Amino acid sequence: MKEQIELFSEKIAKELNIQPWQVFNTLKLMEGGATIPFIARYRKEMTGSLDEVLLAAIRDRNEQLTEIEKRRAFILSSITEQGKMTPELEKQVNEAITLTELEDIYLPYKVKRKTRATIAREKGLEPLAKMLMAQTPIDPELKAEAFIDDEKAVHSAEEALAGARDIIAEWVTESKVSRERIRNLFTREAVITSKPVKGKELEGMLYQNYYETQENILKAPSHRILAMLRGEEEGFLRLSVDPDEDKAIGILDRIFIKADNDAAHQVQLAVKDAYKRLLQPSMETEMRQLAKQKADDEAIKVFAGNLRQLLLAAPLGQKNILAVDPGFRTGCKVVCLDRQGRLLHNETIYPHPPQNEVGPAVSKVRNLVQAYGIEAIAIGNGTAGRETENFIRKIPFDRPLISIMVNESGASVYSASPVAREEFPDYDVTVRGAVSIGRRLMDPLAELVKIDPKSIGVGQYQHDVNQPALQRSLEDTVVSCVNLVGVELNTASKQILSYVSGVGPVLAQNIVEYRNQNGEFKSRSQLLKVKRFGDKAFEQAAGFLRIRNADNPLDRSAVHPESYSIVNRMAKKLGCSIEELIEKEELRKQIEPRDFITEAAGLPTITDILQELAKPGRDPREQFDLFEFDKNINSVEDLRPGMILDGIVTNITAFGAFVDIGVHQDGLVHMSQLANRFVKDPNEIVKLTQKVRVKVMDVDVQRKRIALSIKEAVNQ
Fold first, then answer.
1. 149 in helix, strand or coil?
2. Under 8 Å between Cβ of 694 and 647
3. Where in the chain is the domain with CATH 1.10.3500.10?
4. For 688-699, what is the HEC assignment?
5. Separation of alpha carbons 554 and 396, rounded Å
6. How far apart are CA 100 and CA 72, in angstroms?
7. How far apart are CA 229 and CA 239, in angstroms?
8. How far is it, in rounded angstroms, from Cα 20 to Cα 13?
9. Which helix (H) or strand (E) holds 142?
10. How far is residue 657's CA from residue 655's CA, in Å, rounded to a whole number?
11. At residue 48, what are phi and psi to the nearest 5 degrees?
12. What CATH number is given for 2-109 in this structure?
C-alpha cells in the first residue's frame, strides 16, 4: 500500500503542480480517517498549507488511479487465464496510463457476444482473412472458392469474402493504433449535429434553439450539451456526432492498405465497413460520454459554487422573529420564534382576496409583535409574497421593525420531510414551512443543511448530471461551509452536527441525546463522555465545535484543544491570563511566533492561533444588509423597458445570472450584459444573494420572460 501511495503521489503531484510529499502526507492523513476540513485547518505543516480544493482534487484523483489499478490487475489476470499473455503484452498493460488505453489493449481479448466476425471464424474463414490482409497479388475470388462449404453455410466465394472482410473489420476496430488515430480525429474535429424529430416540431418548441445546429462537441458550452441531450432523451431532438467521414476512412486506409491490388481492395472494403459499422458508433459513444462528463463537471461546479454562496449568506443573527408563509386563498401562515428559533405560536391571517380580512389581520400581527417582543419579520418570497410584504409595511407598529423577503426555495421540501415531521410532529406542513422561512433569516446555514441541496434550486440541469458526482460535490460543499463557520454545540440541530468533521449522523444523534439528558456542555472535553465519541472523533471534530458560555475561553474559539498548551505557554510567558491575551492586542503583539514552534505545531499553526485569539469564534460570513424591492413594482405587468431597479441574485448559470426584482418571476442577466468587458464566468461579476442594480431591457408578459442588464444599469 505504501508503494502505491508513493507511486500515486508522484503522478498526482505532477498533475496538480505541487510537491510529492504534500500529496503523500495528504493521502496518509486521509487513510487514517482525517477529513478535508480538518487537514486544511489543523494539519497545514504536513501538507504545506494546501487548501480544500486541492485536498479534494488529491482525494478524487487517488480514487481514480485506484480504480485504474484494479482494472489493470483484472486485465492482466484475464489475459493470463486465456493463455495469451506475452512479455510484450504485459509491458503494454503495465505501461498504460489511462483507463481508455487499458480498454483498447484489452479489447481483442474480451469475451465477445456473437458477432459477424465470430460467426465467420466459426465458418473457418480466418485463414482467408489472413491471406487478404497480407495484400499479396492473389485472386481473392479464386482463393475464396476453396472455403465454400455448404455444411458451414458458405455457399459462394462472395459469401466467403464477406465473412473474411467481417473478420478484418474486427481487426481494424480492435487495433490500438487505429482506435488512437480515430479517437484523436474525433477529439479534434467531431461535430454534434442536432435536428428536430419529424412530426414533433411543435410539441418540442422548448428545444427550438437546437433544431438545426452544428458545433464542435468538445468546445460546445456545457448548458448547450446538457440541453441537447435532454431534448434527445425526451424524444424531441435527433443527435449525431461525427468528424468528416472521408477523412476518418483515409486515416484508416493509410494504416492498413499496403498495396494496390485485388486483395488490398477487399481490405479497403473491410476498412470502410469497420469505420461505419463499428468504429464510428464506438467513438461517437466515447465522445458523447466525454462531452457529457465535461458538461456535468461544469454544471456541478456551478451548482456547488452557488450552494456555497447561499449557505454562507449573511445571517440576521439571534432575534425574536415573526415569520410569514404567504398565500391568497389559504391565507398567510404566521409563526413566532424566539431567539433560539423555537416555535412559540402560530396562526393564520387572511389579508388578501378572496377573504380580504385586512382589519383583523392587522390587529393579530400587531398583538403578536407586542406579545412576543418581535425584532424582525421574515416573509417568504413565493405566491403572494410581495402583496404580503406591502401589507406588513403598512402596519403602524409602536417601534421600528425590519421586514425582509426571504428566499423560500426548498421550504416546502423541508416541511414535508422526515426531519420536519420529527421536529414538529404536531404541526402541519404550512406551520413547518413558515418556521423554516423564519429560521433562514436568522441563520441560513443552520436551516438549509436540513434540506437536500438539490431541492434548493440553485443549480443548472441538476437532474441530468451524474448524480453520485453531484451528491458528493454538494456534500463536500456543505461540509466545508459548516466547518468554516463552526457550530455552537449547545444549540445545534443534529442535522448540522452531522456535517461537522468526524461526527456523522450517529454521533450527532448521540450528542443531542447527551445534551438532552445532561444539560448544556460546559467544555469541549465533555464530548468524550458522549456514547461512541472516541479520541479520533474528538481530534477531528473538537476544533469546529464552539461553546459560547464555556469557562475556558478557548472552547469558544477555533483553537484546537491539542494547541491549548501553546496558548497557555504564551500567557505564562507574558504573565497574563488567557482572557487578557484575547482582550489585549498589545499583549499579543509582544509574542514572537517562532518562539512557540514545536515538533507538531509549525509557523502556520502558530499564526492561525494568534489570528483566532484576535477574534475568537468570529463568524466568517458577511454582515447582514437590509434590502427592499421597489414598492411600486409588484408584477411582470408593472415592468417597462428602461426601468432601473434593485434586485437580488438568486441563481448563477454558465450563461448568466438570474435576479429577483420582486415580481414573482426572476429576470435573466445574460453573460453579455454582466459587465463592460468579456466575461468567461458569471461568478467573476456576481455572487449568489448579492444585491445588484439592473436595467430592464425587455419584457415578454405572455411568456413571463424578463431580460435585464447590470452593464447598462452601471452605464446610466
1. strand
2. yes
3. 119-302
4. CCCEEEEEEEEE
5. 45
6. 11
7. 8
8. 5
9. helix 140-145
10. 7
11. 70, 35
12. 1.10.10.650
154 and 177 Cβ atoms separated by less than 8 Å: no
Report residue 168's pLDDT band, with 50, 70 and 90 as the boundaries: very high
Which cell goes with 35? 477529513
C-alpha cell at 423: 421536529
Which part of the chain has CATH 1.10.10.650?
2-109
Query: Going by C-beta distance under 8 Å and a sequence separation of 6 or more, which residues neighbour residue 7?
Result: none
Collapse the DSSP code of 659 into the 3-class scheme (helix H, G, I; strand E, B; otherwise coil) and give the result: strand
Q: Which fold has domain 119-302?
A: Tex N-terminal region-like (1.10.3500)
Nearest to 686 by CA among 659, 667, 715: 659
Measured distance CA(530)–CA(535) in Å, rounded: 11
Q: Does position 5 have pLDDT exceeding 70, yes or no?
A: yes
Q: Which residues contact 298 (CB under 8 A, 6 or more apart)?
A: 222, 654
Cell (9 digits) for 460: 443548472
CB half-sphere exposure, 279, CA atoms < 13 A: 33
What confidence category does residue 701 fall into, taking pLDDT thresholds of 50, 70 and 90?
A: confident
Place of cell 471464424: 121
Pull the grid cell for residue 393. Answer: 409595511
Confidence of residue 1 (pLDDT cuts 50, 70, 90): low
* Mean pLDDT score, 208-231: 93
Residue 638: CB atoms within 10 A of its CB come to: 14
Please answer whether residues 248 and 275 qualify as being in contact, where contact means their C-beta atoms are separated by less than 8 angstroms. Answer: yes
pLDDT digits (tens, 9 = 90+) for 350-362: 999 999 999 999 9
Strands 691-700 and 343-349: unpaired
DSSP string of 289-353? HHHHHHHHHHHHHHHHHHHHHHHTSPP--S--EEEEE--STT-EEEEEE-TT--EEEEEEE--ST
- Report CA 691 to chain centroid distance, whole Å: 24
The torsion angle over the Cα atoms of residues 452, 454, 458 and 463, rounded to 10 degrees, is -170
CATH architecture of 321-442: 2-Layer Sandwich (3.30)
Residues 104, 332: Cα–Cα separation, whole Å = 63
Rg of the chain in Å (alpha carbons)? 33
Indicate where the chain has its CATH 2.40.50.140 domain(s): 636-715
Residues in the chain: 716
* pLDDT confidence band for 138 (50 / 70 / 90): very high
For the domain bounded by 636-715, which CATH number is listed? 2.40.50.140
Give the separation between CA 611 and CA 41, rounded to whole angstroms.
13
- Looking at residue 537, the DSSP 8-state letter turns out to be H
Q: Are strands 667-670 and 644-653 parallel, antiparallel or unpaired?
A: unpaired
Q: Compute the distance between CA of residue 133 and CA of residue 161 in angstroms, rounded to an integer.
A: 12
User: Residue 198: exposed, middle, or buried by beta-carbon count in 10 A (0-12, 13-18, 19+)?
Assistant: exposed
Q: How far is CA 475 from the centre of its chain?
A: 8
| pTM attached to this predicted model | 0.87
Instruction: Identify the three-state secondary structure at position 531.
Output: coil
The whole-angstrom separation of Cα 653 and Cα 26 is 33
Q: What is the dihedral of CA 551, 552, 557, 561, to 10 degrees?
A: -140
